[in-house]
Amino acid sequence: MILTLAAAAAALSGGGGLNSSYPLDPLDPSRSWSLDEDPSNSSSEPATRSLLPEAPPASTAAPPQALSPWDVALCVTGTLVSCENALVIAVLFYTPTLRAPMFVLIGSLALADLLAGLGLILNFVLVYLVDPSAQLLSLLSAGLLIAAFSASVLNVLAITVDRYLSLYNALTYHTERTVTCTYLMVLLIWGACLALGLLPALGWNCLGAESACSVCRPVTKNNAVALAVAFLLVFALMMQLYLQICKIAFRHAQQIAVQHQFLATSTTKGVSTLSAILCAFGACWLPFAMYSIVADSSYPIIYTYATVLPATCCSVINPIIYAFRNPDIQKSLWMACCGCVPPNLSLRPRASSDV
């Protein structure tokens, strides 16, 4: 009996592999026990105990980024832009009679604005639904927005050039050469804009040097200034072309004495429309262009949002100005939606010079 107790004591002190100075008290709160370490377990199988405390719980995931109302406004604007311009593209695609150079340029403008709207939606998804640290996706999104908005501005310039040529060369405008030049101009516009869109992904970005960022990360300050100066040159050229259009229109009005009063009234209306188009275009883009020149990434982001949102709204009003005011497109829309044309709709063919 005594020998048996002595053997058991020796087994607990040395043979069990445990230090006798740390008693295995099941009520000791400094030690943790798993389910199969329960000392009250009456199973005949030996219980396996661990003296290591339980690992602390894994750190919780970072809270999701707070939803900015400015980003929501940009996403809503992008959705509206996409719907409007998708409708314009569908009408032009399914109407065989709308193949004149003027409609080719309107379709190119609608495609650019459609991509711009999709780019705004994609940017919202990348910020709030995808890991924002994915640099490749961020660069692709920035490239899409740069290419789309650049194409939008250049297509507006191309439409202005087309209107000027239709007045300046009225006798030779409707020729095959004009159609060829129009398609060539569209190809040049998209080639240049695609090249601009690829620049961030090819290394022209500020991801490696945050101090070099512009107000629109990841575009560098130098690139943003270059794009803003290019826009100012485009806007100046548009103003000069519209001024020449007004001069030619007034000259035509003075040359026809019989219809002088009618043409003077219609010409005044056309000049007012041109002024409204230029003012709307300038009001949308000039604040952002000027701010991109003077500001950098250290400026409060609310100023960036306040200037970017009007610029995106230009893509909302472009379909209204250049597509939905056109009687031919209006007729196609009425036929597609209602199957008829309202009697008060003007069926006079609309020329490129019409504003």
TrEMBL record:
Membrane topology value: Multi-pass membrane protein
Compartment annotation: Cell membrane
Domain G-protein coupled receptors family 1 profile: from-to ranges: 84-322
Compositional bias (Low complexity): 50-65
GO molecular function ontology, one term from the record: G protein-coupled receptor activity
Keywords: Cell membrane, G-protein coupled receptor, Glycoprotein, Lipoprotein, Membrane, Palmitate, Phosphoprotein, Receptor, Signal, Transducer, Transmembrane, Transmembrane helix
Signal peptide positions on this chain: 1-17
Cellular component, GO annotation: plasma membrane
Alphabetized InterPro entries for the sequence: GPCR_Rhodpsn, GPCR_Rhodpsn_7TM, GPR_3/6/12_orphan
Pfam families: 7tm_1 (PF00001)
UniProt xrefs under Gene3D superfamilies: Rhodopsin 7-helix transmembrane proteins (1.20.1070.10)
Transmembrane segments: 70-95, 102-130, 136-161, 182-204, 224-250, 271-294, 300-324
Stretches for region Disordered: 29-65
Domain of life: Eukaryota
Record's protein name: G-protein coupled receptors family 1 profile domain-containing protein
